[in-house]
Each structure stands twice: as C-alpha cells, then as structure tokens.
Design brief:
With 233 residues, this protein is α/β, with parallel strands linked by helices. The protein contains 8 helices and 8 strands. It has one domain: Aldolase class I (TIM Barrel, Alpha-Beta Barrel). 35% of the residues lie in helices and 17% in strands. An 8-stranded parallel sheet has the order 1-8-7-6-5-4-3-2. β6, α5 and β7 form a beta-alpha-beta unit. The chain is globular.
Length: 233
C-alpha cells in the first residue's frame, strides 16, 4: 500500500475530553469528521496514571456511538481486560508487549473475540516484537511520548521508527494500520504522515483547542488536520 493510497484516519483521544459530558463530546467530535474513538486505558501500575475502563466503553455504545472504538490498554497483566473490552464493544484492542507474558496468546484472544488486534511500542521498545506475530496484528501503534499523561510533546526520534514500521508493514503485504499517539498537532501531522503513519491519535490538540474557542464544535481542528494530511500525499 503506497503513501498515496492509504486512507488517513483521525482518532481523537477521549483522555482530553470533558468527562462530565462525555457522550456529547464524542458525538460532537465524530460529527466534525473524526473516524475513530481512542480510549487510553491506564491502571496506575503499568503507567503512572489511572483513567477509564470497559464500563465507559460499554456506556458509549449504549449511548449510541457506532464509530470504531480503539482501546489502547496500558495495563499489566492485560489478558483479563481484553475479554472485558471485547464484551464492552471495542473494535480495536491494542496492548504493550511488555504487559503480556504470552504475546501470541494475547493477540489470539483479541482476534478470537471478534476484535482487531494490535501491539503498542513505547519510545524505547524495539519493533522486533513483531517478528513472529505479523499474521495476528491489525494495528501497530507507536508511542511518540512516554505513556501515562496527555499533552506531552512529540519525540522526533519516532519518525525514524515510523519509517521502519512502515517498511515492515509494506513488506508483509498485510492490511495493517500504522497508528501514532502522542504530541500530534496541526503543525506536525503532515511530517508524521510522510514518515508512514495512517492513523493519528490526538487528544489535547482536538478537545482542548476546540473547547477554548467553542465548546460544541471541533470542525475547524479536524479540517485543519485533513488539509495538512492532503499536503503529505
């Protein structure tokens, strides 16, 4: 799949949303043109923060959200929550290889439950964990910050890692999305896309920026992302 033919997807992270009116926030950002709802699930063990769990995912489905939900599990151990997020209605479930004793088994649990599976790589985690499981991966997610908190700056070294991940995916000839998470903004999303990403997690860049100017509309932010992505093709 070439750069020119990849469909770019925008995945706002609800970590930066207003949790007092989460259903409304998600409805508004999807209406503005976002593609995926990104869940940052943290357990205050694998990462130094505590966020949301499968009940929130289930609540959004009951609220009427039909868009794909991308559950990024920053938890250890991970297998129990895989089952919970399958039941809650997740579309993608991604996890960190360091959080599983048996990566192949964890990926199989996700696939067997009817969800799409993925591995997440911290800035210093090598891509070699992909070597024997490319046939079980639907998403590769690269962290461009150290996980745990929103609002961090993009780590430039991630661009080379993106290029290597893109090379691996293209060589596999499989339909695998390459997602980036951390510090994605209007002024760097085109460069990130040129490095090979096709799915872009953005939290504060979407929710916080839009809320400052208009609490109900995210159109301008999503539009600016699309305009920049168009220049990367």
């Amino acid at each position: 799949m070439t750069d020119a033919t990849r469909d770019c997807l925008i995945a706002p992270s609800i970590l930066s949303a207003d949790f007092a009116r989460l259903g409304e926030e998600v409805d508004n950002v999807l209406a503005a043109g976002a593609d995926i709802v990104h869940f940052d699930v943290m357990d205050n063990h694998y990462v130094p923060n505590l966020t949301i769990g499968p009940l929130v995912c289930e609540a959004l489905r009951k609220h009427g959200v039909t868009a794909p939900i991308d559950a990024h599990l920053m938890v250890k151990p991970v297998d129990r929550l895989i089952g919970d997020f399958i039941d809650a209605g997740a579309t993608y479930i991604t996890f960190h290889p360091e959080a599983s004793d048996h990566i192949d088994r964890s990926l199989s649990l996700i696939r067997d439950g009817g969800c799409k599976s993925g591995l997440v790589f911290n800035p210093a985690t090598p891509l070699s964990f992909l070597d024997y499981v490319m046939d079980k991966v639907d998403m590769v997610l690269l962290m461009s910050v150290n996980p745990g908190f929103g609002g961090q700056a993009f780590l430039p070294g991630t661009l080379d890692k993106l290029r290597e991940a893109r090379r691996r995916i293209d060589a596999s000839d499989r339909d695998i999305r390459l997602e980036i998470d951390g510090g994605v903004k209007v002024d760097n999303i085109a460069e990130i896309a040129r490095a090979g990403a096709d799915t872009f997690v953005a939290g504060s860049a979407v929710f916080s920026a839009a809320r400052d100017s208009d609490p109900h509309r995210y159109d301008s932010v999503i539009r600016a992302f699309r305009e920049q992505l168009a220049t990367a093709r």
